[in-house]
Amino acid sequence: MGTLINHPAVAKLLTLLGPFVVVAVVVSTAYSLSQLTWQLSMPTPQKPPATGERGPEQLSASDTDRSQAATIAGWNLFGTEEVKEEVESPKVDMINAPQTRMRLKLEGVFVARNPDNSLALIANQGQAANVYTVGSSIPGGATLAGVFADRVVLQRDDAFETLRFPDSDEDIGLQETQTRSTPTSEPRRSSSRRERAEQSAPPQRELTDQDNLVQNIQRMTPESFMYTYAPVMESNPQAILDGAGLTPQSSSNGEPGGYAVGSNAPAELMEQIGLQQGDVIVSVNNHPVGDVQRDRQLVNQIIESGVARIEIRRGSRQFVVTYPLR
């Protein structure tokens, strides 16, 4: 081998090819290094999944869309639908409820815009009336189920019963068997009752005394009170207002704004008829009140109508209390 390299011709050939050999070695080395770098940067190939299985990288576009749709739906962008149980409404049963036979007397109702806030004044067997809210227990094992302008509905066990304003003291708690008097006979009967009340009434000074006023409100029916105090309301209405703790109010435009229940209103009076300090009597029989001199002219109209429908404002809500006068 050494003899061959030392041969003059071979030695001359190596001398001529030397630069080309160096270049070839450099190029070959560079190529090998580049291949090694590329292999190191590539991830290790994964074993293909078994037939019927798909890896995460094999999810189709439709799978991705469904997944995103389910995620967005779970955000409840438009809120959740409230599922309400259907409860059978008792309104039909309440409307057709028979007259109760309980020994109760309905003396007044407060009909609020929200039925759950309505009140009723009910007396038990000739005792003083108490204020009952919807859902509260009534003497005799009943519950006040509903309040309407002309009646209340009681519930005993699973049955509804109606308690109406009585025509007279004799038919309390009994079925209505007598027909009401015709409208033409009502004014005559009202006039005779008023005349008897005026003849038997004590002097006005005694009537307007606050203690006497409170006692009379507690012991008298609304009908008797109206007939007894009608002369005072016409001649000296301010005395009634002072005794009851009522103060005339004015609206923002200067018009009458009703009568406010003041701090000097007798507690017994407010408890008896369900008023609270700060309440405002807005109207009576749909006539706005607050002008003392003008309002006294309503007395006869109220008596002749046979009912006192009083609208009361309490804070931001208003309700109506109805008192029968016959």
From TrEMBL:
Residues 175-185 have a biased composition (Low complexity). GO terms for biological process: protein transport. It comes from the Bacteria. Keywords: Cell inner membrane, Cell membrane, Membrane, Protein transport, Transmembrane, Transmembrane helix, Transport. GO terms for cellular component: plasma membrane. It is found in: Cell inner membrane. Residues 26-165 form the Type II secretion system protein GspC N-terminal domain. It holds the Pfam family T2SSC. Residues 42-66, 164-213, 240-260 are annotated as: Disordered. Residues 186-198 have a biased composition (Basic and acidic residues). InterPro entries: PDZ_sf, T2SS_GspC_N. This is General secretion pathway protein C. The lineage of its organism: Bacteria, Pseudomonadati, Chrysiogenota, Chrysiogenia, Chrysiogenales.
